[in-house]
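Translate sequence into structure tokens.
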Amino acid sequence: MEIYYTSDTHSYVYPTDYVSREDKATGYMVLSSMFKDDALKIDGGDVLQGSPLVRFEMKRGNSPLMAAKAFNTAGLDVFVPGNHDFDFGYETLRSFTASLDAEVVCANLQDEKGLLKIRPYAVIEKNGVKVFVTGAVTDYVNVWDKDKLTGLRITDSVNALKAVLKEKDAAAADFRICVYHGGFGNESGSLKENRAGEIAELGFDILLTAHQHQIIKPYYIHDSLLTLQAGSKASCCAHIRLEKGKKPEAEIIYPEKDFQLNDKMKKLREHESRLETDLENYLDRKEGEVDGILEDRSRIYSFVHGSSLADYINDLQLSITGADISAASLFNTPVSLSHEVSMKDILQAYPFSNTLVTADITGGQLKTAMERSASFVDFRNGKFVEAEDFAPGKDERYNYDFYRGVSYTFDLSEKKGERVKRLIWKNIDLLQNPETEMRIVLNSYRASGTGGYDVYRTLKNSTAISVDIQDALIASFENRVVEVPSKTDFSVKI
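Result follows.
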């Protein structure tokens, strides 16, 4: 048996990176053109957020979504939902999964309404090899999407997988496969985002991880469990070979630059050419102008000198909520906005929909949060570098926060946890007056404590603001010239 595994495609379906109109060797159409017809095809979730395509389709109310059409055309056998697939609530998840021909598998998802097409596991036999396939989504859906889970329950992932392994079908299979929409992590506390380390001890033969957007080449744990992770945005996939009585073999594979779509995908693309053209025209549409540059020049430059794009987003969050201070992050790929700004430019700069949360915070709690951001950068061998121990193996630039409404200094010569050396709000020294209270605005992702910001979970008087930052950012450009904000009083010492 051969298996092809994708995850975190975020509806990157067409051969495009959404930067140019030229075809690129990326996207699910391209990847799936490499799949053999008789292979087992698995996807590990995160489809309903993250690309201009799915945002466009959601706004237009398209159903079924293009991602579902591509999955069905490719002959997807198993789909395990990811955390972003819960972002829009029960009915959206139900509509999407109902449109799939694949088995929808998730051991720790309970449907209290009984309408979802979902099972705890599937048994599939191809070419004389029988596999038991189960899956689970990160427990942290209970934090990020707690207000969207009406009718659904996300249970403890490890316990659910442990229970499903006791099924008689698991024992009868030649290989037992777990698809976990989460990864390896070392979090503490009662609720953990990435529990692959625990799942690896349960007795599976293959553990396919996801969620972290890493490319982890196949390797063995305890010389018996094969594990890997296959990146994101349909830029690559895993190819696994199974033979009875032998250890699984696997590799990460990439499309050739001179790729060719197979006949099925060519027909699908031709059939959906109107959608592709409409999307391209939508993305090229001018939204507004900037009287200079909303700058996110480079990762290190922004870490050390600040970012006028981050300042602009923070000012937007403050204007929406009336909070005293704001924290905002940027994304893994730096994007600046200047002169004429298109829809494509905005969606590249802020690719995910987030809502806002306001809460009361003390100066001491703010310092604790800011120490996390200050740990993201080190100064070594005469230059600024991203800290190796911030998130080993994972590109987590979005977990560095920029602050607005306070003046502050990071001193990188100090050890981590003691780097915030100046923190002023309205002429109040918050380091000397840590009990001073303010109102902070954050995006909903950060307010959950994700990314090492556990202190935010302890804030009082938390209020959810049902404003989509992506929509607000687009609206802020409509038919106007945007002014570049004044620079935040921020400095880094070495």
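Note: The mean pLDDT is 94.
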